[in-house]
Amino acid sequence: MHIETPNTVIPKGDKEVFEFLTDLKNFEKLMPDNIDKFEVINDDRFLFALKGMPEIVLQRKEQTPYSQIVLGAASDKLPFTLSARIDSISENSSEVALSFEGEFNAMMAMMVKKPITNFMTTLSDNLSKI
To answer: Which InterPro entries did the record assign (predicted)?
Structure first.
């Protein structure tokens, strides 16, 4: 399953956006209002839970300075990645696109597509306010 947000213009340079996203504690600022729990486990992992949902542990999988950050599920039960692609527009402006890639059976994909799309949209909207 692939979900991608529209590009979001952020009034900050690509380096500043990259550094914001590589500091995992900043993801708490991007989370939806219905966040129930957020905890940084170490420099490469954090967990979060939205009300009524199970806890999800995300782990930094890879990063390319100033252009991409990839987080993935720390568990193999539901394998997925959440990527942020950062494109420089100018010294003080950049564009970010978030994408979700997950391997789910058809039934699971049908159940999670809308909540994940809403979650991604919220992350993208909140990213534009950093």
So the answer is: START-like_dom_sf
Q: Containing domain of residue 29, as a range?
A: 2-127
Secondary element (H or E) of residue 2:
strand 2-4
Give the Cα-Cα-Cα angle 24, 121, 89 (nearest 5 degrees).
75
Q: What is the Cα–Cα distance from 58 to 28, expressed in whole angstroms?
A: 12
Give residue-wise pLDDT tens across range 79-108: 899 999 999 999 999 999 999 999 888 998
CATH classification at residue 14: 3.30.530.20
Per DSSP bridges, beta strands 93-102 and 8-10 are antiparallel
Taking the C-alpha atoms of residue 86 and residue 67, their distance in angstroms, rounded to an integer, is 4
Counting the structural domains of the chain, the total is: 1
